[in-house]
């Protein structure tokens, strides 16, 4: 596992992040939380026709409506990122706004998964920043984590390419724990930790703001498979922030704007077996937290 510099956190938070893979770092000021919740509720009411009919968790950074994507990103920057930049030592980190994540009433939980890689995790780190605007519990779709699973070596993760299925899912779910978070509490967790969320059974949506923390100067990457270009290889694109906010970012992979390197693709079942075989190691990593 990469020995990361978490010096922007206090000692307890560093320990939690290192051994468990997640930590709660701050509580957003109540007056500011009230303001961002009102603005967000109004925004979601305006745009939710775009995704609520599907009745599932939706990350607005994936919206096909460019105005929705950009407005969401801008609101997260104005509220969450600005607060973190005011209160954290950012000398060695970069904080990047992402978007809102909306889970409507009745939506099913998200499947257990890793988030996609956005940096080369062999030499850099990437952390999700997640702040719910309402109390997040088992009743409305809280986060579930597999403590210690962030030390896995599945480095080249593609968006929506999920290994936590079948027997892997059955075994991993035995070790998932719910993470109840109060409105305005800010959670940090490694993007490669195995996690998910439960169903929203309460009669209102659960909205969270999401950002990203990477170490200063880290090159951003997108890893993907594309048989139209080459088979049995992972394409490693070196990208920038502009890529994620593009109206049609898929075209960037064919326009030549971003160059790529080729990585040998490990067979799906080999990666799954390695994850299964690593479960004792994940459990041991989490136990170190209490030592």
Q: How would you characterize the overall build of this protein?
A:
The structure is a single chain. With 291 residues, this protein is of the alpha+beta class. It has a single domain (11-282), classed as Jelly Rolls, CATH 2.60.120.620. It is built from eight helices and twelve strands. The protein has helices spanning 11-19, 30-47, 66-87, 167-172, 241-245, 252-255, 268-277, 279-287; strands at residues 22-27, 58-59, 93-103, 126-132, 143-145, 177-179, 185-190, 195-197, 206-215, 220-226, 230-239, 260-264. Helix 2 runs antiparallel to helix 3. The mean pLDDT is 93.
Question: Characteristics of this structure?
Answer:
291 residues; alpha+beta; Jelly Rolls; six-stranded antiparallel sheet; 8 helices; 12 strands; globular
């Amino acid at each position: 596992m990469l020995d990361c510099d978490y010096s922007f956190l206090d000692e307890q938070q560093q320990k939690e992040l290192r051994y468990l893979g997640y930590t709660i770092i701050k509580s957003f000021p109540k007056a500011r939380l009230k303001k961002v919740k009102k603005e967000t509720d109004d925004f979601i009411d305006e745009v939710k026709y775009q995704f609520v009919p599907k009745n599932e968790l939706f990350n607005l950074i994936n919206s096909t409506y460019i105005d929705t994507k950009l407005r969401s990103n801008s609101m997260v920057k104005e509220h969450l990122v600005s607060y973190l930049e005011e209160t954290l030592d950012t000398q060695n980190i970069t904080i990047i706004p992402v978007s809102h994540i909306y889970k409507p009433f009745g939506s099913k939980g998200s499947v257990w998964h890793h988030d996609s890689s956005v940096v080369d995790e062999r030499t850099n780190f990437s952390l999700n920043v997640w702040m719910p605007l309402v109390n997040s519990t088992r009743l409305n779709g809280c986060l579930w984590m597999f403590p210690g699973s962030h030390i896995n070596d599945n480095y080249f993760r593609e968006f929506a390419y999920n290994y936590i299925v079948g027997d892997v899912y059955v075994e991993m779910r035995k070790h998932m724990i719910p993470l109840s978070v109060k409105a305005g509490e800010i959670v940090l967790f490694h993007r490669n930790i195995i996690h998910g969320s439960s169903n929203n059974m309460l009669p209102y949506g659960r909205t969270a703001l999401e950002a990203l923390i990477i170490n200063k100067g880290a090159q951003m990457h997108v890893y993907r498979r594309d048989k139209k270009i080459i088979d049995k290889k992972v394409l490693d694109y070196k990208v920038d922030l502009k890529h994620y906010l593009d109206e049609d970012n898929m075209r960037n992979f064919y326009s030549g704007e971003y160059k790529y390197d080729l990585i040998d693709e490990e067979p799906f079942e080999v990666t799954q077996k390695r994850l299964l075989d690593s479960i004792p190691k994940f459990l041991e990593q989490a136990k170190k937290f209490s030592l």
